[in-house]
Amino acid sequence: MINVSKEFKEKIKYGRFLLYLTITLADGTVLNLDDSNIWEGGFKIDEGVTESGAFTIGSCIINKMTVVLYDEDEKLSRRVFDRAQVIPYIGMELDDGSIEKIQKGVYEVDSTSYDGDLITLECLDNMHKLDKEYAGVTTTYPATIQTIVNDLCRYCGVVLQSARFDGYNVKLTKRPINSGITCRQVLSYAMQMICKFAKCDANGQLIVDWFDQQVFEQNTLLDGGIFDDDSPYSSGDEADGGTFSPWNTGYEHNSGRFEDMDAFHHIYTLDTLDVAVEDVIISGVQVTAETENTENADTLFYGEEGYVLKISGNPFITKENAANFAEYLGKKLIGLIFRPLDASALPNPTVEAGDIAYISDGPSKSYSALVTNLSFDPDDNMSISCDAESPKKTESQRPTELEQTLAKMRKETENTLSNYDLIVQQMSQLAANTLGFHETKIIQDGGSVIVYRHDKPKLSESKIVYKSGIDGFFVTRNYTGKDSTTVWKAGFDSNGNAALNILSVIGIHWDWAYGGTLSLGGVGNGNGVLKVFDAKGNVVGLWDKDGLIAKAGKFSGDITGASGTFSGKLNSKAGNIAGWEITEEGLSTDKMKIYSNKSINDDYDPDNPFDDGSNDYTHIYRDAVSTNEVSAQKFSFAAHRGSTYYKERTANINIVTDINGSTATYTTLRFVDGILVSKLS
Fold first, then answer.
1. Dihedral of the CA atoms 302, 303, 307, 311 (nearest 10)?
2. In sequence order, what are the residues at sequence separation of 6 or more whose Cβ sits closer than 8 angstroms to the Cβ of residue 513?
3. pLDDT tens digit string along 341-399?
4. Is 405:297 a contact under the CB 8 Å cutoff?
5. Contacting residues for 441 by C-beta, under 8 A, at least 6 apart
């Protein structure tokens, strides 16, 4: 919903809109056009947040604007509009002669056609930039949805309005590996996991959002029912009327505040209305996990039978998380009530796809509608859809492609901007195309002032407000009309403390920092580097594209490395190195042990002195080697009476003397108390 002044709202019903276009060509030339350059009936915006004809979750739809320019003097026909940026504005002349403008998006020319004096521009919003293959995004999984969205937006050159959204910290373990999968598809899958849709707002920034379904819950009224055949009438809701003494008992109903009406549209100037017979009430969610064998796929159900949303084909849904995902969606969606419909009404530029509306057909019929798709034409009726499939339909709820407008694949190679360059570019565009502000000064006792700069003529009707006083500078995009109830999400105070959304700078110096995720390097910034210095300026640790280099220090926990070089002293009582398990005794692997401080006498068995019970194991002690068989071209043996090796031991030793094919000849030596006493064969 786009905020406008009360006077703007009152004048909407007269439909006297003014059109403005700011077109920035690829060579940097800026064209400022108005109604005189736009053909009558030659302006339309199509936008949506779900698929046409279906109530879908996770949609990331490319919105489209069509503009027909009138070029009588042929000045525009000489211009090259390919990939030009187009920013449309809708204006309304107020009673004082001023013009209030609202921005309706940021678009890029996708195709241009010429027909005599008419030039038609087909334009797509910034969502089309996400139609790049996801293979180039370097996100390491497991990753939070915040990281996934940040990384793919950075890769595609799209600015994310806010990195904090409901569900931003949900972690996904499996990276989508589908061949040719695009960033927009991955974004759609991620949005589906947290019951959201994504769209580009009026400033061209990507926002993560969902229908404000609490509006319907807060404005639920009593159903008066119908004149049925029962006596007394049985239809409708029941309410206790209370008693006259005391008079303050019985049913109470809160009709809300006038401010609550800012959360929804009331559309009643209808031309046509095609409405479903009954409301849709979401009763359950069915989730199918993504598996290689679709016949054995796990399907989880949460809720009750009735109108069930079916989710499948999402690579982020696994057997491990499917049950939790179904419950997560169910708790958000079950109980949502709306009426599927298609309406044609007087154009209203403040209505956006994703808004909530009450559609009234006469004084006694109002329907709760989710604005899922919208077509705005200032010279014609506005088309509004609240889309949903028939409750009887059992097919998968989510189509394979989430598109309203098919974007053509770009043939040109696009340059990837760094995060800082992207923000600077976006800031420059805002500065070049920004609208003016209104100012209100509140004079305090003593002559000081508090200054408000706001987007509408009246402060009380404004949403974007900048407040400045002696204690700081504060910003909000959702002014409530009262400072005390407004959440000021950005600003800085007189102590130097600042609250910001995303900070983009060339360099930062700090004494300490605290946060969740630190990302270094990537496509735009190349290879990331993390250096740690001691007090003398010596590098004691380095982490770059080649790995981690630590000059000194201690490690605790598990250390896993695919490759690398270690020098220095390594102390560990447990672990694994190249297949060797580290234990308190030493190193061990399959069929072999190396003891760090153990004597062969510690494993001595008088009945079998050369076997410690492991049979075919090879054991290397600090003073001997025990193995099942020794093979050598030359064998020298010297026994010493009283030796640690053979003292008080009697045993036979087989020595291979000849091998013929697969036959071996042995010589057996018998030792008694460590002395060779006989040759048995």
1. -10
2. none
3. 999 999 999 999 999 999 998 776 889 999 999 999 999 999 999 998 866 553 333 33
4. no
5. 449, 450, 451, 452
